[in-house]
């Protein structure tokens, strides 16, 4: 089973996690820029964090045979702090870089005016930099937040196929599906989604435009939830090719739209189960020699 | 005007690119030639617009490094050493690891008037072996003896082949030998393997003419 985790915060994880992920088949991942638990109070601490996402963390992942990508943005929660608003001005430097495969996480936390302003501005940046957008949906009042999210996406002019709306559940999936956006699901030990509810959604609506992630971070979470969802799919009668589509080909298709993927097909081949790894990387630069 | 030595000659570099990538390199070069302060705009996209990986015909050189150094060379044609260094500092500051490494390689081909010691020291503070290796190239002649010895020791410690260290035989001295021997004793006491490069450095120290300790 080869796995591309489309949303995991490795900065908060250990080398044991990297080893276990590689053993489970993870060969590529996307680390979205997000809130670090402790609120930041200046632009400088954001730029150091972004530098780590395109620098040290990418190197750390490469030592474990995993291709690391990231998304860059001012997250919704911290968009509410005026001391952090100028982060929007430094984003273009990072959005120009290789391995930066989307603008994100953007979206709503508490549905404030400030959050909406930052969200709209960052959707404009996605259009300008021809990048997909990764949209976080709020933990509270998720349904209303998702509705407003989809309105803003439509107004932005960004194609729905360039947008993944994340942390969905049974209540919010259909409106995102109807809008033509990609649907992200975070599989968690006791909040968000679990692997069996995930399988039920896949059985009901199919595999199209679905991204399954562990969203593992500094909270109680499990970086192997992608693999466990793959196992649950197989148990429920899905084929190995179905699992490969959801856990590998779908994220490659979505983030491949950036033209910025850095996956070595050889890295993926050793975990593949009969699928053609190289064909899916057309148009993206291929990182070789990254395991020096 | 600041002459920057390329990582690979033009024929080797252009020969490794297909027609589309050559046109991209020409476009990037023209952009930087017209306005050298656009180096920072050209740098991030350089690899995805041209290519990456080992450069055929240039041993140990990566294509993306050769392209970026070629862009610095172009900027150098219309910038004096100080403004060029200012551009390089900016590119390094906001660069990802690949961009930072290319700046270090460009410094290694820069004339004496360009002093990027501060960038080397920044790279040597990281644990990214690709940056550490690039920092110990020809520009490391700029490092004072203490920083240079620590750089060599860091190579041993992080597994960077000391073959990447410029001037090892020339600069290795008794103080470095003592540091490396202490490192070896620590490894042996812990029952760990001693990397073969430890002996390479000790041999270099033994072969070098004796220098005053604080030279």
UniProtKB/TrEMBL annotation, chain A:
UniProt KW Plastid keyword: no
UniProt-recorded Gene Ontology molecular function terms: hydrolase activity
Keywords: Hydrolase, Metal-binding
Keyword Hydrolase attributed: yes
Family annotation (Pfam families): TatD_DNase
Alphabetical list of InterPro entries matching this protein: Metal_Hydrolase (IPR032466), TatD-like (IPR001130), UCP005295 (IPR012022)
Signal peptide: none
Family recorded in the similarity comment: Belongs to the metallo-dependent hydrolases superfamily.
Listed name of the protein: TatD family hydrolase
Classification lineage: Bacteria, Bacillati, Actinomycetota, Actinomycetes, Propionibacteriales
TrEMBL record, chain B:
Species of origin: Nocardioides pini
Protein name in UniProt: EboA domain-containing protein
Top-level taxon in the UniProt lineage: Bacteria
InterPro entries: EboA_dom (IPR047715)
């Amino acid at each position: 089973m080869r796995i591309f985790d489309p949303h995991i915060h490795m900065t908060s994880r250990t080398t044991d996690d990297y080893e276990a992920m590689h053993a489970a088949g993870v060969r590529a991942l996307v680390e979205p820029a997000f809130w670090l638990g402790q609120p930041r109070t200046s632009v400088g601490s954001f730029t150091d964090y972004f530098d780590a996402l395109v620098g040290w963390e990418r190197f750390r992942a490469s030592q474990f045979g995993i291709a690391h990508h990231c998304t860059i943005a001012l997250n919704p929660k911290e968009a509410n702090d005026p001391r952090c608003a100028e982060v929007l001005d430094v984003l273009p430097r990072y959005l120009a870089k290789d391995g930066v495969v989307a603008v994100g996480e953007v979206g709503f936390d508490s549905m404030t005016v400030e959050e909406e302003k930052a969200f709209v501005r960052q959707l404009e940046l996605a259009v300008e930099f021809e990048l997909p957008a990764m949209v976080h949906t709020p933990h509270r009042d998720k349904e209303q937040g998702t509705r407003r999210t989809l309105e803003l996406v439509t107004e932005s002019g960004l194609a729905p196929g360039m947008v993944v709306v994340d942390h969905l559940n049974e209540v919010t999936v259909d409106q995102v599906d109807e809008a033509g956006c990609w649907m992200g699901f975070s599989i968690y030990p006791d909040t968000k989604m679990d692997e069996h509810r995930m399988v039920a959604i896949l059985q009901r609506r199919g595999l199209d435009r679905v991204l399954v992630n562990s969203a593992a971070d500094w909270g109680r979470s499990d970086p192997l939830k992608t693999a466990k969802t793959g196992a649950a799919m197989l148990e429920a009668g899905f084929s190995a090719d179905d699992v490969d589509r959801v856990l590998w080909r779908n994220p490659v298709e979505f983030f491949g739209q950036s033209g910025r993927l850095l996956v070595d097909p050889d890295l993926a081949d050793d975990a593949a189960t009969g699928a053609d790894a190289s064909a899916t990387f057309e148009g993206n630069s291929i990182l070789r020699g990254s395991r020096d | 005007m600041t002459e920057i030595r390329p990582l690979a000659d033009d024929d080797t570099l252009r020969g490794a690119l297909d027609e589309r990538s050559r046109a991209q390199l020409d476009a990037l070069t023209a952009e930087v030639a017209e306005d050298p302060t656009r180096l920072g705009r050209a740098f991030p996209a350089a690899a995805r617009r041209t290519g990456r990986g080992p450069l055929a015909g240039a041993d140990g050189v990566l294509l993306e490094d050769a392209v970026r150094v070629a862009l610095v060379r172009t900027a150098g044609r219309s910038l004096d050493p100080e403004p060029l260094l200012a551009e390089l500092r900016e590119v390094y500051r906001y660069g990802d690891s690949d961009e930072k490494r290319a700046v270090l390689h460009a410094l290694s081909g820069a004339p004496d008037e360009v002093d990027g010691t501060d960038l080397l020291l920044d790279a040597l503070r990281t644990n990214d072996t690709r940056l550490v290796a690039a920092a110990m190239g020809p520009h490391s002649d700029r490092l004072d003896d203490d920083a240079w010895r620590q750089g060599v020791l860091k190579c041993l410690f992080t597994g960077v082949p000391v073959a990447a260290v410029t001037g090892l035989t020339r600069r290795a001295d008794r103080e470095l030998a003592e540091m490396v021997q202490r490192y070896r004793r620590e490894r042996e006491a812990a029952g760990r393997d001693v990397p073969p490069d430890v002996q390479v450095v000790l041999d270099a120290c033994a072969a070098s003419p004796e220098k005053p300790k604080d030279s």
